[in-house]
Design brief:
The structure holds two protein chains of two kinds.
Chain A (H helix, E strand, L loop, with lengths): L1 E2 L19 H6 L4 H29 L10 H20 L2 H14 L8 H23 L15 H4 L4 H28 L12 H33 L12 H35 L6 H15 L14 H29 L8 H24 L1 H7 L3 H31 L1 E2 L2 H28 L13 H31 L1 E2 L28 E2 L7 H4 L1
Antiparallel strand pairs in A: 1-4, 2-3
Helix pairs in contact in A: 2-3, 2-4, 2-5, 2-16, 3-5, 4-7, 4-8, 4-9, 4-14, 5-7, 7-8, 8-9, 8-10, 9-10, 9-11, 9-12, 9-14, 10-11, 11-12, 12-14, 12-15, 14-15, 15-16
Chain B lengths: L7 H4 L5 H22 L3 H23 L7 H25 L3
The chains are: A mainly alpha, B mainly alpha.
């Protein structure tokens, strides 16, 4: 694939402290993109486990015998905090911050991102936002109870600590924007010689389109959140109808960012899946151009569908029809990707390994999430299922079944490269079963509950919903068990795992041409690229 | 790395203070016009804001923020951003205008 000039001295791994600072200080002051990626990985897994614990308690409360555990007000705080942590601290930054940071420069043949110090600053913004979000739970009027969407006018009136939580989200937005601008510049300016746009691995296209959304959409929600704070402190009357403001304007501004944010979450996962499938099918990707353009199309069209979150909020019927149509259109590029993944597997020499299992799980669960999303794009159905458990089930199929499983697949795929250790494949397979069964019991249960009419965010429920609530809650136990087994297996591998080969999966993109774990500056000599990214020898014979 | 976004040769073409003062005067006139239009009623005030304010911002971008002297890449980035904003406005008006 590439030509390398030989050098005598191999560089030490990025995990070895080579500067004047050692240990924790070396990590906290690093500008190496790989270390920053690992910092994000550890922080986000910690946040994920907290969010998971909260979700577990929320499900437990739906078993009426456990309802004495928390009050209704605490339940409101829990679903808000669960949403804020999972969305702002895990799913939105997840794949770009971890794997984008670690692998983007390597995939395009660069030594680092364009702005390494800005990269570290982004992580500090992220951590500052996270700390403020956690502080908001225990200070002021207590944990916010608005839901993660902070809808006005309730968010303007509630006595809970919305101002600090909103400010935390504002700070997190800066982290996201700075990462976006860093990646765009890196892809434009630091590609290796011969790495033309259509020779880039498709993960890079996914990160590129994601970065544009981060850059263009995040400032809108940042300003909106500042307006919420100003409204709470000074009563300026932008969103408060009592002062002539328009609460629908808040919903528009919030979703102008927060719907594209869904694509910030899912596009990099799609990129990771697109890397995994050719490697384990041992053949080039089916329809490279179609996948690259579909990433850009999802980013573009996905930015124009925000008001489908507002079909029942009193928008004009013209807007309802326009946004319903646009929502149907955005399903097309997503379907192109799914088709191309499946077509790549067709007649491939499939090597079934844990990353492929999780990639296939992604496709299956994302397909359910996507199709239930198309259902909601239809106006009549939307009126019936709006604000029910159906929405919660759909969202978790897309965000957890999609982004979450995509992140797990990416972690399994790149773990040996990142840490030079190999995990127990049996332990991962064993964790998959409870995870998959529990996932579908929990979230398909929610889809059924939603169709039956169970509203979301309710502390109590009517007797006719109880059976499905029990099914969903038992599913959550299996799911948590599987997740703990999964992370346990990886944690064990980190300390006690056997040494991983440089290329354990037979991959052909650039990261597999360098040692595991990678050296400090990735390449001893910057490679010269002579052909596309998925060039398998056995295929070309 | 041969092409850079901020070209030093381009910055050599900067005009003198005369141009900047003329633009400043134009901005003052436009501000005056905006204040005047706002006294004619709410509809005029809104349309005045929607047309004259972007014009003023454009002058500031073009001359004071040196967009005029930048390469095509930066101009395209600004146009993409403005295009995105216009699309957002148009879709927002599909709700607001038909209430």
């Amino acid at each position: 694939m590439t030509t390398h000039a030989a050098t005598a001295q191999p560089q030490p791994s990025y995990l070895v402290d080579t500067g004047s600072r050692k240990g924790l200080m070396a990590w906290l002051t690093t500008t190496d993109h790989k270390r920053i990626g690992v910092l994000y990985l550890y922080s986000m897994i910690a946040f994920f486990l907290v969010g998971m614990g909260i979700g577990f308690v929320m499900r437990l409360v739906q078993l009426t015998s456990f309802q004495h555990l928390i009050t209704a007000q605490t339940y409101n705080a829990l679903f808000t905090v669960h949403g804020v942590i999972m969305i702002f601290l895990f799913v939105i930054p997840g794949l770009p911050a971890i794997f984008g940071n670690f692998f983007l420069p390597i995939l395009i043949g660069a030594k680092d991102v364009a702005f390494p110090r800005l990269n570290l600053a982004s992580w500090y913004f992220f951590m500052a936002g996270a700390i403020l979000a956690v502080l908001s739970l225990f200070t002021g009027g207590g944990a916010p109870d608005t839901g993660w969407s902070f809808y006005a006018p309730f968010s303007l009136k509630t006595g809970t600590n919305v101002s600090l939580a909103v400010f935390a989200a504002f700070i997190l937005g800066f982290s996201s924007m700075l990462t976006g601008i860093n990646f765009i510049t890196t892809i434009h300016r630091l590609r290796a010689p011969g790495m033309k746009w259509f020779r880039m691995p498709l993960m890079c296209w996914a990160l590129y389109s994601t970065s544009w959304i981060q850059l263009l959409a995040t400032p809108i929600v940042a300003i909106t959140l500042v307006l919420v704070i100003l409204e709470r402190f000074f009563g300026i009357g932008i969103f408060d109808p009592a002062k002539g403001g328009d609460p629908l304007l808040y919903q528009h501004l919030f979703w102008i960012y927060s719907h594209p944010a869904v694509y910030i979450m899912i596009l990099p996962a799609m990129g990771a899946i697109t890397e995994i499938i050719p490697t384990f099918a041992k053949r080039t990707i089916f329809g490279y151009g179609a996948i690259a353009f579909s990433s850009m199309a999802i980013a573009g069209v996905g930015s124009l569908v925000w008001a489908h979150h507002m079909f029942t909020s009193g928008m004009s019927s013209v807007a309802n029809m326009v946004f319903s149509l646009l929502t149907m259109i955005v399903a097309v590029p997503s379907a192109i990707k799914v088709f191309n993944w499946v077509a790549t597997l067709y007649k491939g020499s499939i090597d079934f390994q844990p990353p492929l299992l999780f990639a296939l799980t992604f496709i299956f669960l994302f397909a359910i999430g996507g199709l239930t999303g198309v259902m909601q794009g239809a106006l009549a159905i939307n009126v019936h299922i709006h604000d029910t458990y159906f929405i919660v089930g759909h969202f978790h199929y897309v965000m957890f079944g999609g982004t979450g499983m995509g992140l797990f697949a990416a972690l399994l795929y790149w773990f040996p490269k990142m840490f030079g250790k190999m995990y127990s494949k049996k332990a991962i397979y064993a964790s998959w079963f409870p995870m998959f069964i529990g996932f579908n019991m929990l979230y398909f249960g929610m889809l059924i509950l939603g169709m039956m009419g169970m509203p979301r965010r309710y502390y109590v429920h009517l007797p006719q919903f109880h059976t499905m609530h029990v099914v969903a809650t038992v599913g959550s136990w299996f799911l948590v068990l599987g997740l703990l087994m999964f992370f346990g297996a990886l944690l064990y591998a980190l300390f006690k795992g056997g040494k991983a080969e440089d290329n354990p999966w037979g991959g052909v993109t650039l990261e597999w041409t360098i040692p595991s774990p990678p050296p400090l500056e990735n390449f001893e000599t910057i490679p010269t690229i002579t052909h596309g990214p998925y060039h398998f020898e056995q295929e070309s014979k | 790395m041969s092409e850079t976004i901020h070209s030093t040769e381009a910055h050599a073409e900067h005009p003198g203070y005369g141009t900047f003062i003329k633009v400043w005067v134009a901005l003052l006139i436009l501000t005056g016009a905006l204040v005047g239009v706002s006294h004619l009623g709410q509809t005029y005030a809104v349309w005045g804001l929607l047309t004259l304010t972007p014009l003023k911002a454009g002058l500031v971008f073009y001359f004071f923020m040196h967009l005029k002297y930048e390469g095509p890449l930066l101009k395209i980035v600004v146009l993409v951003t403005l295009g995105t904003l216009l699309i957002f406005f148009a879709l927002l008006f599909s709700d607001v205008a038909f209430h």
